[in-house]
Amino acid sequence: MVIQALLAASLALTPIPATTVQAKIDCSRVKCLALTFDDGPGATTPALLKTLKRAGAKATFFLVGKRVEQRPEIAAQAVAEGHAIGNHTYSHASLPTLLEDEIVEEIRTTQEIIQQATGQQPTMFRPPYGHTSDRVLAVADQNELAQVLWTGTTLDWQLRDAKKIKAAVLRLAKRDGVILMHDTVPATVKAMPAIVKELKKRGYHLVTVPTLLGGKGPKPGVSYF
Ligand code: NI
């Protein structure tokens, strides 16, 4: 009994690596696509998680620190359901305009908040607005973070229409692609059941970014996509 209790305690304390690769899916053999959602967690994130769960799809969420503070349980739920998470700064600042100390603060605070909420320390980071620089990438490297950009952006926040967002995703979808959307845009969440259905029909496996990288990444200080 004592051994079991100790074992349970040590398991509870063991941090789960945020890069957990989905078992069974080998993107060098099958057609994969990574759906990524920025700026959450938000009020519409639980509905999105429900859609993804129902479809057996995995995604990657780039979380904003101050929003994780407001909804830590949704960040934890995303992790528990097998999605990957990344750091999207604390205040959604355009990082290259900040002083070095401020960039460090944006990244580190968010690492801590996400760790506290989910038990995981992100290994990926996405700069808000895609604004980055050598200085930003160096800070990411110092914090053991890979920079993850995208191959296609839907501009869903601008479209704000489920049909248009669906059309944008289908146009941008390609093998090993990384699609940028926002779980904070209600029309995106509304469009998602039809999007995942169509993507699966087209033969895509919807995977996390670490699964897409197939164990070759994410590596700290490296910029992807
Ligand atoms: Ni963003």
Polypeptide structure, described:
The chain is α/β, with parallel strands linked by helices and 225 residues long. The chain has one domain (19-224): Glycoside hydrolase/deacetylase (TIM Barrel). It is built from ten helices and nine strands. It has helices spanning 2-13, 45-55, 65-70, 72-80, 100-118, 134-142, 156-159, 162-172, 186-201, 209-213, and strands at residues 32-38, 60-63, 84-87, 124-125, 146-148, 152-153, 177-182, 205-206, 223-224. The strands form two sheets. Strands 1, 2, 3, 6, 7 and 8 form a six-stranded parallel β-sheet that branches. Strand 1, helix 2 (45-55) and strand 2 (60-63) form a beta-alpha-beta unit. Helix 2 runs parallel beside helix 9 (186-201), helix 4 crosses helix 5 (100-118) and helix 5 packs across helix 6. The longest helix is centred in the middle third of the chain and has 19 residues, at 100-118. The chain is globular. Residues 11-16 have low confidence and may be disordered. It binds nickel (II) ion. Nickel (II) ion binds next to loops. Nickel (II) ion (NI) binds next to loops.
